[in-house]
Amino acid sequence: MNSYAGPIARLINEFSKLPGIGKKTAERLAYYIIEIDKEEAMKLSAAIKETKEKINFCEKCFNLSENKLCEICQDQKRERDVICVVERPKDIHSIERTKEYNGLFHVLHGHISPMDGIGPDDIRLKELIQRVRDEAVEEIIVATNPNVEGEATSMYISKLLKFSDVKVTRLAHGIPIGGNLEYADEMTLSKAFEGRVEI
């Protein structure tokens, strides 16, 4: 028998669906919501609703955006001939914090992983190739995670771009194998950018 009232049980259940949130943490979050005043709880609810209603993908790079083009793609001060390819939108924020990179981005929304049934057609590779054909791109920096899937995706991108004169580089030392960009600090990412190599 469930000892929670229905709304509390449902709230705990919804919190437990979030990544990295177990049952105990879900319970703590639910009790936090109950204990704060109604106005604060409504602000949280409104922020979630607004995010779901207003945030989409940038039409050019597939970053998260409130407009057709994200702020980075709209920024004319950025280098337009360099594109950094990342797996997820959150990777962009990790790289931006370094203040070492001033080019554009392209978000794949995943990586190639045959074991999980994810092939090249399941991520935004076609759109990347189209950008290389349509834009005056001189360098593609592959900043996929340094794990098996990230390396496979990196090599695939390199082979796909053999048709072009575009230089393809990969982030180098500084990021441990098996690590994720979102957990790397600014200094580590800065060094990785400095030491990128052609692939």
Quick recap:
The chain is built from eight helices and seven strands; from the N terminus they run αααββαβαβαβαβαβ. The protein is an alpha/beta fold and 199 residues long.
Describe the structure.
By secondary structure, the protein is of the alpha/beta class. The chain folds into 2 domains: 6-54, Orthogonal Bundle (Helicase, Ruva Protein, domain 3); 57-198, Dna Topoisomerase Vi A Subunit, Chain: A, domain 2, CATH 3.40.1360. The chain is 43% helix and 12% strand. The chain has helices at 6-16, 23-35, 38-54, 71-74, 89-96, 125-134, 148-160, 186-194, and strands at 56-57, 64-65, 82-86, 104-107, 139-142, 167-170, 197-198. A 5-stranded mixed beta sheet has the order 4-3-5-6-7. A two-stranded antiparallel ribbon has the order 1-2. A hairpin with a 6-residue loop joins β1 and β2 (64-65). α1 crosses α2. The relative contact order is 0.10.
Task: Give the topology, please.
Layout: H1 6-16, H2 23-35, H3 38-54, E1 56-57, E2 64-65, H4 71-74, E3 82-86, H5 89-96, E4 104-107, H6 125-134, E5 139-142, H7 148-160, E6 167-170, H8 186-194, E7 197-198
Helical content band = 40-55%
> Poorly predicted ranges (pLDDT <50, ≥5 residues)?
none
Rg estimate, integer Å: 20 Å
Q: Largest beta sheet: what is the strand line-up?
A: 4-3-5-6-7
Keywords:
five-stranded mixed beta sheet, 199 residues, Helicase, Ruva Protein, domain 3, 43% helix, alpha/beta, 12% strand, two-stranded antiparallel sheet, 2 domains, Dna Topoisomerase Vi A Subunit, Chain: A, domain 2
